[in-house]
Amino acid sequence: MSVSALSLTRFPDSISGFLQVASVLSLLLLLFKVIQFYVHRQWLLRVTQQFPFPPANWFFGHKISEDQELQEILTRVKNFPSACPRWFWGSKMRIQVYDPDYIKVILGRSDPKSHGSYRFLAPWIGYGLLLLNGETWFQHRRMLTPAFHYDILKPYVRIMADSVHVMLDKWEQIVGQDSTLEIFQHISLMTLDTIMKCAFSHEGSVQLDGKYQPYIQAVEDLNNLFFFRVRNIFHQNDTIYNLSSNGRQAISAYRLAHDHTDQVIKSRKAQLQDEGELEKVKKKRRLDFLDILLFARMENGSSLTDKDLRAEVDTFMFEGHDTTASGISWILYALASHPEHQQRCRDEVQSLLGGASITWDHLDQMPYTTMCIKEAMRLYPPVPGVGRELSTPVTFPDGRSLPKGISVLLSLYGLHHNPTVWPNPEVFDPSRFAPESSRHSHSFLPFSGGARNCIGKQFAMNELKVAVALTLLRFELLPDPTRIPVPIPRLVLKSKNGIHLCLKKLQ
């Protein structure tokens, strides 16, 4: 037999041998993964045995439809005191916490954000204040805190009022055609308009320029895509996710969001090339958000990288408009559903302002309106939950404990509806927030709490008050009985079917 014939004979044998080896290695790898899965699941069951939970499938976990997620939390709050495991699939689990004593313990620690879920936000908002941990987070937080000093916030009230008036003028035109309006989209544009002007020195009106609608839609899409990805076992891997239809949609939305923020940064950098503008900025007693970022120097003397700069802009652009839009929308819905409280707020605002423009000093002179705002945020917290990953073991006041490595979801929605904390929690009762009332320090956390509380909470509260006060002066609000909103959890609290109100122009 020739050498070439012998080689051809041996070639199939070598392929067959290779395939056999590959099959054995694949089976061994599969067996290793099965054992790893089983061991980890058994460990989770063992370390969480002090925390009972509803029956769950060993592989598919607790299958809950998105419409029922919040209702399921309320059921757990009633049946499983303080905390309860939520199984997603196999060994994917996190502890839902909704007791103020438990939450106080967690927020008093320095545990990082839950990497398993929050990492999915990184392609969108990068590693800014929301996702950073440790010393880098502390440096960025300290650097940005001056942007929210009251000297900076005071003049923003006029800007907020101007943006709200633009929105209300649009509503007056629309109401003439159809008295029922989906308000969330309009309010999103208004809050984006406000944050662009206050924090990013934008000139012009976002609400009157149609080019900003794609950014609003991108944020809406990314909210939904994040929610579904966290709950999909097949989308945990980046490569697989990016090849999926959801992944491709996410990549497109990332691009739209980044184009928007890149343009904001580019525009402000161009303005600062003008010597007059630069001199004006240097004379400021305090810098606004974007200028702080552009002029920042870290402790080692280096300025922020372009990547870090965009991450902070992306983070605050999203958090500064979407959470506030959620808050305002749900507050207006709550007032529309409770006309007696709405009228009392309106009377308070009318007696305070008369025909005058709203100012910083007015914001602390609306006690009943503030009580209603807080009660609405209790019922409809703009951020329904925040995650942590335990970096060290923790023991709670009742003696139950959890080890390092467990993911914890602080369910602010569950906390705010906990009947042991708030009697008759589904009832809208602003007197809960009367000045003389007492409550647990961690029973009401619309802006989270502890060292990582929302850096812009005062900015947000000011905007909520301005928007509510000016809206009540122009319109009577009524719910649309044919389209009652269905709250659903996303990064911020949304409604599955929008938030529709009937608006009646006041004479």
UniProtKB/TrEMBL annotation:
Keywords: Endoplasmic reticulum, Heme, Iron, Membrane, Metal-binding, Monooxygenase, Oxidoreductase, Transmembrane, Transmembrane helix. It holds the Pfam family p450. SUPFAM superfamilies: Cytochrome P450. CDD domains: CYP4B-like. InterPro entries: Cyt_P450, Cyt_P450_CS, Cyt_P450_E_grp-I, Cyt_P450_sf, Cytochrome_P450_Monoox. The keyword Heme applies. Its main location: endoplasmic reticulum. The chain crosses the membrane at residues 15-39. It is found in: Endoplasmic reticulum membrane. Belongs to the cytochrome P450 family. This is Cytochrome P450 4A12 isoform X2. It comes from Microtus ochrogaster.
